[in-house]
Design a protein that fits this description.
Elements (H helix, E strand, L loop, with lengths): L1 H113 L6
């Protein structure tokens, strides 16, 4: 009976050892999973930091570009205003020229009628 009992104890210990071995395997898998998760978290944090830096740099560049665009837009507006003024000046000059041409054409016709008809 003692042998039977020893066999049962050995069998029970074998079962427990098997359970411990299975537990050790699960611990190893969990440790591996944890290591991969930590590595992935570190890579993700690095990518997030890079993305944050890139976003901040992009915002700075966008701000600079907006300022430059506003300066250029103001310059273009100034040029458009200047051109509009020059156009009005040219239109006024053109109108004066037409008035002078009409005025000079009228006396010329009158002069032709009143000038002497003699030829040399």
């Amino acid at each position: 009976m003692q042998a039977n009992r020893v066999n049962e104890m050995v069998w029970a210990m074998d079962v427990q050892i098997g359970k411990l071995n299975e537990g050790m395997k699960q611990i190893a898998r969990a440790d591996d999973t944890l290591s991969r998760t930590e590595k992935l978290a570190a890579e993700t944090n690095a990518q997030l930091e890079n993305a944050t830096k890139l976003r901040q740099e992009t915002e700075r560049e966008t701000g600079k570009l907006k300022k430059e665009a506003n300066v250029l837009l103001d310059a273009v507006r100034g040029q458009v205003d200047t051109l509009a003024l020059k156009k009005k000046e040219l239109e006024a000059f053109d109108e004066r020229m037409r008035t002078l041409q009409r005025a000079s054409a009228t006396p010329s016709r009158a002069w032709r009628r009143w000038r002497p008809r003699t030829r040399i």
